[in-house]
Amino acid sequence: MSDLFAFNGAKGAGYAQPAPISDEYTIPSELQRNTLPRWPRASEPEIVRHYTWLSTRSHGIDSGFYPLGSCTMKHNPRVNERIVQMPGMNDLHALAPASHLQGMMAIFHEMQEMLAHCAGMDSVTLQPVAGAQGEFTAMRCIQEYHREIGESNRDKVIVPDSAHGTNPASAAMCGYEIIEIPSLENGRLDLDALRAVVGDDTAAMMITNPSTLGIFEPEIAEAAEIVHEAGGQMYYDGANFNAILGKTNPGLMGFDAVHYNLHKTFSQPHGGGGPGAGPIGVKAHLSDYLPAPLVVADEDEEGEVWFDWYEPPKSIGKVQQWHGNSGATVRAWAFYRRYGRDLEKMSEHAVLNANYLRYRIMNPSEDVAKSIHAMPVDGAPTDVVKHEFTLSMTPVKDVTGVTGKDIAKRLLDYGYMSPTLYFPMIVPECLMFEPTETESKEAIDQFADDFLHILTEDPELVKTAPHDTPVKRVDEVWAARNLILRHPIDES
Amino acid sequence: MLSAMGLSSMDDLFSDIPEGVRRNAPLDLPEPQTEEEILREAQMLLNTNISVDSRPSFLGAGLYSNYVPSMVPMLATRGEFLTAYTPYQPEVSQGMLQAMWEFQTMISELVGLPISNVSMYDASTAAAEALTCSVRVHNRKASQKSTIYVSELIPPHRMSVIHNYTQGAEIVIKTIPHGEDGLLDISAVNSAEGACAIYVEQPNALGLLDPGICELKSIIGENTALVVGVQPVSLGLIAPPGDYGADIVVGEGQPFGIGPTAGGPIYGLFACSQAYIRQMPGRIVGQSMDSDGQQAFTLTLSTREQHIRRHRATSNICSNETLIALMGAMHMALLGPEGLERLAQRNAGACAATKAALLALDGIESVHPNGVHFNEFAIRLPRPAADLLSFLDEECDITGGLDLSQWWPGRENELLVCATDQIDTEDVEELAEGVQDWLEGYE
């Protein structure tokens, strides 16, 4: 155990700084700080070892297969990291004149155009810094649009019960009332349930397609028609965009607004929880409401291209103070340039890998099948899935008492990150798998073999997993009861 | 793989997409490129940018030029940190969880409040969510229902974020005026009594330190949240807001850990007292134990969050800025208490030296002659600031600051000048000479 606050060496041990250029400053006496924060006093090698030790107790895609459904944990190309460390990136000021930011703005502009094209939208803003903020931003645009056309009575947002939790949370933050509609037994959208709730108070429907069950909603165009006929807007949650890029797009399906997760589809690393980026695209009727500013390209008489900021006339203003997470935008740019017009191959391989993994798990060899206590069932039976799929561990639980959570924890012992657990909630004992396009057939085969093997293991071994991780199963209830949220820093 | 599944082509995998919504034309995008080609093009594009590190730069206004120790990006980009998802499986995420618990501790020590979360998107969203959080906590007892008071001297972009985040809860925003001296009009603060929250910044948008803020809590009382926005580096010299009664402290973490990076990714700080814990936004790490009884860490208080509580969540935040907060933690850990104090002294010293050099010039006046500044100060010019800025940019290769009319129309002749630890004596001399040349050019 390396304890950061146990380092208590010489004052100023860590890092020598130049002297102040002047000491002719004053601080009013009532504002002076009397005691410095009790931060560690450590040397650089001590700090380096501390964080290196911590890194060995973490698990990223670099450590092993990471089939976390809905999170699209694909490989993060390292050239992208190299690019964002180059001069002209971290050392830019957001308020510098446009003449200082032409290279950055060129990338912004290209990304606005590329994202709009891929989603079948008319305008894109890069400002939202996370998927949830993208949802919030789009719902704010829709809200202002309705105010402008005299329909501010539209105060309800419809979401399917399989939606990501951020959808209802983002709409609620805008002040909307949430109407949740149940899915059909096969996990699909229930058009009758939708028809029953739409009306002249419908502001929008928020939905992802493929759904969180990994299945493509075949009646999406009909759903859009129902919502549009009632005067509502269609919002596309882009969390699952990795499944369909180039094959279809939200514009074709009838959506009016969409967010993109650059940290899912476009390989921005997840960084242990962030930063992400959640640009949004909208159809023309919503373009004037986008947060300011956007980047526009002008050409002078000699054909020289010049980039400038543009404030949409009815802009909702700002959702982040600057221009969004430009580091994510630049990484996403480098990622997409790798594929260029072949970007749909990314989706093909993501879908191929998901279907293959599902096939492998659901079709164990005869020898293996004989020793399995019970097989999971398909969360949403269908011929093909898209980039992810769900399995219910209920039969396993019924026979052995082993839960989905136990299996998830046991997978950690094999060096895997677990699939997404207990989501969507409509599938009991749900595990949700998303291998992404960057895993090899060999990696997927090995994972399927190991997963099936766990189903043959002694239930007690699985119930008490994990066994080979830096710590054993962590007591989350104890943490919530005791709420020790910082180091006590005992200086005795 | 296809044949194993009994399929014959990739198209079979997309047969579930109905013809009517299928896209058949190829994407209209450039040819695929190799890593080398992309790197070269990126280099070419980024080279056309003019960075704050390539010349004397006096532009701050919420994003600060700084020096990030070499160790920080090297360690933070270790794959185990960089390529991990949110630590929902604590057994294999102890490293990031412990690092964030340590981050919470360092922020708690810095601002003088017991609780910090793992980060917000930026200072503006942190301020906005602090205000919605305060309304949830205090609205029941408030005599001014759903009402908050905000200092008029906060950056307009931040105000815009606050508007967007508060309008859904139908929160009424009232403004607290500042006097001619740029300080908060304390007599006006009485009107905030019975409201849910008051939001002020220390230093404020014009760089002024305001001792009056220390009295606010005794005026507004227990049932109104005092929310204070800070520049965290200043807290090496300035009293932590927790000491003068702040209930929530927010701020821009960027000076610790990462350059101004065109405004993102950066990270917002959010710290609070016990009373706000169940209503606060964002992730929190707690200490716990594993089944063998050994110390372990895990995300906690998740029942506030969207993936559990859905539309009743305290916030929609899911992805945050963890990796940048980790970089901040590394930077803070390396600085240590005395390193922080030194860094604050360097910022205060650079600001003082720059202010003295400019105010010594005939024709330059201080907007707040008696003000005490940290990092930034406003000066009044005989002609528009925009004109001086282009002159400095084009003739002297200096980035001179912010034309205050960009924030507040009518302040065309006012310039906001910022000096951080990255400004040395030579930079100050160059700026003063440049401004002198410009002044003379108009005589």
Note the main attributes of this structure.
A: 492 residues, alpha/beta, Aspartate Aminotransferase, domain 2, 3 domains, four-stranded antiparallel β-sheet, 17 helices, 13 strands, globular, B: 443 residues, Aspartate Aminotransferase, domain 1, 2 domains
Summarize the structure.
The complex is a heterodimer of chains A (492) and B (443). With 492 residues, chain A is α/β, with parallel strands linked by helices. Chain A has helices spanning 44-56, 78-84, 102-119, 131-148, 166-173, 191-197, 220-229, 250-253, 284-287, 326-339, 343-362, 366-371, 394-400, 404-413, 441-454, 459-463, 476-482, and strands at residues 123-125, 156-160, 177-181, 202-207, 233-236, 257-259, 280-282, 294-299, 305-310, 377-378, 389-392, 420-421, 430-433.
For this structure, what is the CATH class of the largest domain in chain B?
A: Alpha Beta
What fraction of residues of chain B sit in β-strands?
A: 5-15%
Distance between the termini of chain A: 20 Å
CATH architecture of the largest domain in chain A: 3-Layer(aba) Sandwich
Q: Summarize the biggest pleated sheet of chain B.
A: 7 strands, mixed
- Tally of structural domains of chain A: 3
Query: Low-confidence spans of chain A: pLDDT under 50, at least 5 residues?
Result: none
And the CATH topology of the largest domain in chain B?
A: Aspartate Aminotransferase, domain 2
Judged by helices, strands and strand pairing, the structural class of chain A is: alpha/beta
Task: Describe this entry's structure for a reader.
- The complex is a heterodimer of chains A (492) and B (443).
- In chain A, 35% of the residues lie in helices and 11% in strands.
- Chain A has 492 residues and is α/β, with parallel strands linked by helices.
- Chain A has 3 domains: 1-15 and 40-57, no CATH class; 80-342, Aspartate Aminotransferase, domain 2 (3-Layer(aba) Sandwich), CATH 3.40.640.10; 345-477, Aspartate Aminotransferase, domain 1.
- A 7-stranded mixed β-sheet of chain A has the order 1-7-6-5-4-2-3, sandwiched between helices. A 4-stranded antiparallel β-sheet of chain A has the order 10-11-13-12, covered by helices on one side.
- In chain A, strand 12 (420-421) and strand 13 (430-433) form a beta hairpin.
- Chain B folds into 2 domains: 55-65 and 336-441, Aspartate Aminotransferase, domain 1 (Alpha-Beta Complex); 71-332, Type I PLP-dependent aspartate aminotransferase-like (Major domain) (Aspartate Aminotransferase, domain 2), CATH 3.40.640.10.
- In chain B, 34% of the residues lie in helices and 14% in strands.
- Chain B has a 7-stranded mixed β-sheet with strand order 1-7-6-5-4-2-3, sandwiched between helices. In chain B, strands 10-11-13-12 form a 4-stranded antiparallel β-sheet, with helices on one face.
- In chain B, helix 5 (94-111) runs parallel beside helix 11 (322-359) and helix 6 crosses helix 7.
